[in-house]
Every structure is written in C-alpha cells, then in structure tokens.
Amino acid sequence: MAEKSFKYVILGGGVAAGYAAREFAKQGVQPGELAIISKEAVAPYERPALSKAYLFPEGAARLPGFHVCVGSGGERLLPEWYKEKGIELILSTEIVKADLPANTLVSAAGETFKYQILIIATGSTVIKLTDFGVQGADAKNIFYLREIDDADKLVEAIKAKKNGKAVIVGGGYIGLELGAALKINNLDVSMVYPEPWCMPRLFTSGIAAFYEGYYANKGIKIIKGTVAVGFNSDSNGEVKEVQLKDGRVLEADIVVVGVGGRPLTALFKGQVEEEMGGIKTDAFFKTSVPTVYAVGDVATFPLKLYNELRRVEHVDHARKSAEQAVKAIKGLEKGQSVDEYDYLPYFYSRSFDLAWQFYGDNVGDTVLFGDNNPQSPKPKFGSYWIKDGKVVGAFLEGGSAEENQAIAKVAKLQPKAENLDALTKEGLAFACKI
Ligand code: FAD
C-alpha cells in the first residue's frame, strides 16, 4: 500500500484545519510540506453555517460560499488556494489508526501517512440516541448535524416532508437553531428537553425566558422536563411518532437530535495525556508528545485568564488555537518566542432575527438588564456574571458591533461591581463606559 510522507500533517479538515493552513501559508510553507487529511469530501469550511444559512428555504448558503476563513472576515480558501500553495488536501480519507511513537497514521483504505509534526484537529462527534439504546432511534428521518453530509440529508428531508411535523430533541444551541430553521421552512415544530429551561449550561432562567417566549410566539411548541424514550416508525421505516417519558406521544415526520458532542480522541487513547475528556496541551497546544499538537474542540488547554484547564467547543477558539499552534511550531523552527495563548471565551448564536454574543465566564451571581420582552419589536437585553465583586462574564442579545465589543472588554478587564442593583439599572451603559 501507498506511503506518503510530509513535514506537517493536520488530521481533520474542519475549522481549525483551515485556519491552521492559512497560518502555515502566512509563516511560510514549502510545496509538499503540509497535508490536511479529512474524512469529509470538501475543503475546510465554516461549520456554524450548517445550522443556520445552510438550511434557509431561500438564498441558502452553499459551498464554495462558506469555506474558511470567511466566517471571521478573512480570505475564502478555495481548493485552488491549497493547490497554489502546494498544500495537499487528502479528502474522503478516514484515519483509523494512529501510531504516535512511529509518527504514522493509517487510513481506512490502508494508506500510510508519515509526519514530522502532527496537528490533531479531529473536532467532535455527536452523541446519538442509539448510543443509549433508545428504542426505534435508528428510524429513517432522525437526523444529527455535524458535517455537511448530515446537513444535505436534512435539506432533502425538509423538501420531502413539506408542511410536515418536526420534533427537535434537545434544548442546546443546535436545538434552538434547528427549531428556528425548520420553522422558517414551514414545518410544525415541537422542541423537547429535560431541563427547566433551554441552554441551561449558559443561559440563566431570565435569559432563557426571553428565547422560549420568542419561540412560542413563532408557533414553536416547547415541552420541558421530559425526554424522548422511543420512536415509532411506519412500514417504510420512517419515523412517525416520538414517545416521551411522561407518556405523551408527538407526531413527527422529521426528528432532529441535538443532545451534545464528544471530542474525537479515541485514536490517541493511551498514547498522549488526556484531561477533562480532551487531549491535554500547553499554552502552545503542544501535547505530552513533543511532535504532536492538538487544537480546536479536542484540546484541553490552560486558560490563562482563569488560571485553569479548559476545553472549549466553539468556533472562535478553533480558529485561534489553530493559529497559535502553527505560530508556535514555526517559532520553534525559527528560534523565535511566541506569547502564551491568552483566550477570552467567546460564543455566539443566531436564529430568526435574533443574535446573541457571550464573553467570559458564566460563574457567580447574575443580573439581567434591558428590554427582554419577547414581543418587543427590537428587544435588546443582557446579563452580567459577577464573581468576587468583579464582572467576569457578559451576554448581549441584539447588540451592535460596538456594544458587543464593549461587553467583550468588560469580560476581559473584569471591572469591579459591588452593587448589583446599580449594575442592573445601568445595564449596557456600564459596559459602554469601560
Ligand atoms: P471540526 O470543525 O468539527 O473539524 C473536525 C474535522 O475532522 C472534520 O472534518 C472531521 O470529518 C475530521 N475528522 C474527524 N476524525 C477524523 C478521522 N479519524 N480521519 C479523518 N478526518 C477526521 N460554534 C460557535 O461558536 N458558534 C456557533 O454558532 C456554532 N454553530 C455550530 C453549528 C453546528 C451545526 C456545529 C456542528 C457546530 C457549531 N459550532 C458553533 C461549534 C464549532 O463549529 C466547532 O467548535 C468547530 O467546528 C471546531 O473546530 P475543529 O476544527 O476542532 O473541529
């Protein structure tokens, strides 16, 4: 079987891979030195588009429109770009074995890839209901969303089940974005999740009340405090009903499940140090194996601002960690020092006409400010998280670019705020004056 050898190999062809390739090109890479190996069939793209504009009934985003790095306002890297730079894109190729001591990867087809430096950028995979043996969960038209192939299958089903019924299982950001996308496509949407409110890992009850109210106004039915325990299908094997734990049964032509992800680290088990379910790295994304780096969703890295290890599954970190790793690799080669990664957590989501951003850490006390009436023509509201008398996190719905920058600055600088009532009253003005 064929063997190929590269100076640098990026394993995975997602967001982090694309931004790493751009940084390699910036820092200088010789033709033939760098390869990206991906099980997807397309060049790296901005994954968040899959749950947003990709699903629009009109004017939907399609490749090549959203290849990296357009999501951060950068140059769009088309497959030709990689060719011009002499970067090999090895697509539709799944790596099934990694032998880190031997600097070797092996594909499902049996090809061997050798490297001097490996960047692991395998991202996450979805948690499936079949993983827990949920009865009937393998029925047709039950979808998960991670890769472009998943999105294409969902788009086909949306077309085939016009004006049908959709059930969204899960109340995280995938659930919320998919609920909106299916509603915009004129499906009759119900959402089911066990928690008392949506996005409980980030949203306070006050924040969530706005989104649940807004979704209800759009005609989306929200069923909380219960879970899907089984699915019934017709003689074609297509899903027809969702059984809930509380005994209710929902009709469904399409089910979308968004119940979380898991970092793809299994290939490296026992070969590299792990922490918090991810691959442990230093502030330069170097792992316990000096020739191996890990970036994006799979990396557990020191978050300098909070002086603790974290794993972050967001696109902004995927981009920045990839750039940091490449700077560090090239810095070592050139004998130049590179600053430690100093990341401010940033997460965003968009659905319907809504758009929110969050910066910092969601720990401590919270205050809610602004107009959070879901009926308002232009709602704008937010929250601050306050720990040890300092504002450490900030959330804003409906903010302008400047206002979003202002809340980012607050989360970074952590100004004092002793009086929570005063902070509530001041609201966004507190951030804008910092
Ligand atoms: P990925 O982009 O997932 O890339 C991993 C790549 O590795 C994939 O190409 C995969 O096929 C490949 N791969 C994995 N294993 C192998 C193997 N064994 N062999 C070969 N190739 C392999 N974040 C936000 O902050 N805001 C959002 O609005 C947002 N929306 C999202 C919407 C969706 C639908 C999804 C799925 C994620 C969203 N995210 C969002 C999260 C964000 O996209 C991820 O954090 C980011 O893509 C992580 O980048 P990554 O490069 O680490 O992994």
Automatic annotation (TrEMBL):
| Presence of keyword Signal | no
EC number(s): the record gives 1.6.5.4
| Span of domain Monodehydroascorbate reductase 3-like C-terminal | 344-431
**Gene3D superfamilies of this UniProt entry?**
3.30.390.30, FAD/NAD(P)-binding domain
Q: Kindly state which keywords UniProt assigns to this record, in alphabetical order.
A: FAD, Flavoprotein, NAD, NADP, Oxidoreductase, Redox-active center
Which residue numbers delimit the FAD/NAD(P)-binding domain? Answer: 6-322
| Highest taxon in the source lineage | Eukaryota
What is its EC class? oxidoreductase
- One GO cellular component, as annotated: cytoplasm
Q: Does the keyword Disulfide bond apply?
A: no
Reported cofactor(s): FAD
**InterPro entries attached here?**
FAD-oxidoreductase/Apoptosis, FAD/NAD-bd_sf, FAD/NAD-binding_dom, FAD/NAD-linked_Rdtase_dimer_sf, MDHAR3-like_C
Function, as annotated: Catalyzes the conversion of monodehydroascorbate to ascorbate, oxidizing NADH in the process.
The record's comment on protein family reads:
Belongs to the FAD-dependent oxidoreductase family.
Q: What is this protein called?
A: monodehydroascorbate reductase (NADH)
Taxonomic source organism: Gossypium harknessii
